[in-house]
Design a protein that fits this description.
Length: 270
């Protein structure tokens, strides 16, 4: 593994790392001082356990500075074991810089990065995936290589929250709900009313679903719900995630349609 430091205009420095695997170079910068550049090189090339111990100290004392360093660590070390991923913070500021290296490795490694990305970064990724699918549809031919499938797989596994991938639940709209009676699904919508342990959830395609709550009543109006479908208009919740108001419902609805279309269904398999 090679790590080089070059000078930029204005006295700043740039660190370039060449992975031993021969992947794309990782470029970090600009950094302000030689001391910071040396720290980045240590993160990229040092012993894993020692580096993670040092990063945890940086995270406690300088949280904003820790994000890019963790991102550089992930990009230079993928694939990471489950044990190592458990030591990477969630969420992780600027995690997106590690996505190209993780995606080149496997969809599972990329999924770990996506789980740590900010909500804004994940929304941009969803939009990119939607544009990619539309491009393939217009070309009437698949794009070369496994990249499109990997991107779409991790998009559907990220949404706006961490998902239990050992028991995946397909994302559906109200119109698709009746196809999954007796099965687990993931549904997004806005709360229209609450009556005891039942809330009325309006979906992006303007349907209303009665959700029987098993968790504490949510504090926000926009939710992602996983649960067992009882009927075409009701389900029993087994987990829910509260979403911010800037969640893009229109993109979610489009992605659901693509995920269930014969032409693109295979791209959404985990």
């Amino acid at each position: 593994m090679a790590c080089t430091v070059t000078a930029l205009e204005g006295g700043r420095l740039q660190v370039t790392f060449l992975p031993a695997s021969g992947g794309e170079p990782i470029v970090i910068g600009p950094v302000r001082s030689q001391e910071q550049a040396d720290l980045v090189c240590d993160v990229l090339t040092g012993p894993i356990d020692l580096v993670l111990d040092e990063l945890s100290i940086v995270l406690q004392n300088r949280p904003r500075a820790a994000g890019p360093l963790y991102g550089a660590f992930v990009a230079s070390r993928v694939p990471l074991s489950e044990e190592l991923w458990s030591r990477i913070p969630l969420p992780l500021p600027e995690a997106a810089q590690a996505l190209p290296a993780a995606l080149a490795c496997s969809a599972q490694q990329a999924r770990q990065v996506v789980w740590r990305m900010s909500e804004a970064e994940r929304q941009r990724l969803q939009l990119f995936g939607l544009c990619l699918a539309r491009l393939q549809r217009r070309l009437r031919m698949p794009l070369p290589g496994p990249l499109p499938g990997r991107i779409m797989a991790l998009i559907t596994s990220s949404s706006m929250a961490t998902i239990d991938c050992s028991n995946p639940a397909p994302r559906v709209t109200f119109q698709q709900l009746g196809q999954f009676v007796g099965k687990r699904v993931t549904l997004v919508g806005r709360i229209e009313g609450v009556d005891g342990n039942t809330l009325q959830l309006r979906t992006p395609d303007n349907g209303v679903v009665a959700v029987q709550l098993q968790s504490i009543a949510p504090q926000t109006s926009l939710l992602e719900v996983q649960g067992l479908v009882n009927s075409p208009t009701s389900l029993t919740e087994d987990s829910l995630t509260q979403l911010s108001d800037n969640f893009d419902l229109a993109n979610y609805s489009e992605l659901c349609k693509l995920a269930h279309s014969p032409q693109f269904r295979h791209m959404f398999l985990p």
